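REVIEWER CHECKLIST
Item 1: Sequence provided? yes
Item 2: Single chain? yes
Item 3: Sequence as submitted:
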Amino acid sequence: MPYNTNSPLRTAALAPGNILNVNGAPLAGDIQVSGPGTLEVLAGRNLDLGIGGNNADGTGTGISTIGNARNPYLPFAGASIVAGAGIGLSNGLAISQLDFKSFIADFVESDSGARYLDEIGSVLIGGSAGQPARQFTAADFSALDQEEQSRLALEIFYLMLRDAGRDFNDPTSAGFGNYDSGFAAIASLFGTTRWRGDISTQARDIRTKNGGDISIFAPGGQLTLANTILGETLAPPGIVTETGGNISVFTRDDVNLGIGRIFTLRGGNEIIWSSTGDIAAGASAKDREVRAAHARAHRSTKRRRADRSGWSGHGRRHRRARHGGGGATPATWI
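Item 4: Structure as written out by the authors:
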């Protein structure tokens, strides 16, 4: 994608209020990145990917990373995507109104932070094969630049929301019957600012095709996927990691799938949290188990039959439990 300081997206990003909106007929450019790394799409208010059909050449589909699909000389692995709305002026995660400094001090550099750092990755001593692996430590974290620290801190934020959902049903946990740890993480990172902004994917995708995680947050709004007016789409739209990768979603208000889908294919976890709204799997069928066929012989009959394993389906299955105070209804799905 050639650099163009006067492109519609850059012009919109510099406009007052930083409202990012790509409504109307699909354009050939989309927001599409080849190669590894991280693509950040951050809107001061609303992030709207627009309506209308896709283009026959595979463009006009939304926000995507494609690895080496268009350039075989690049690595296969594609970039991750971070998409946020309603966060005001920003120039990346580190230079934004999100309080990563407080969150890192409160949780990443705390005693419990070591466990999360170990979970999000490890490094090889010396960087060569055959040498022992070691834990990813606070020293490794501190050696990263501020933007990378913020990105990893955002991963830890989602893991804390996940654990708050798990602890709610664990009688041995201090979080049993409450979501206090999750709301503490939210308060540390997002503070008391009155955020305002929604994310609407509509007929388009947020998709990684060759690996890469997807992180989505709307601290002052909701996430809405496709409604019933799509146009001609190349595939059912939604939020998808095609070749492995996690999907993490945080909103204040509802998560509405409509006839869209949130899918992790070929491996990956999903964490979806709504602080005060519902998580609605929409008009499509909920998850169903589909087993990949392979032959299995039975000793008694000597007959062979097909067996299957794996997950497929539309929509999204989720667990939901009501918060005891204030009527909040956070939910996680893993």
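Item 5: Key structural point noted by reviewer: The two ends are 34 Å apart (CA to CA).
Item 6: Recommendation: ____
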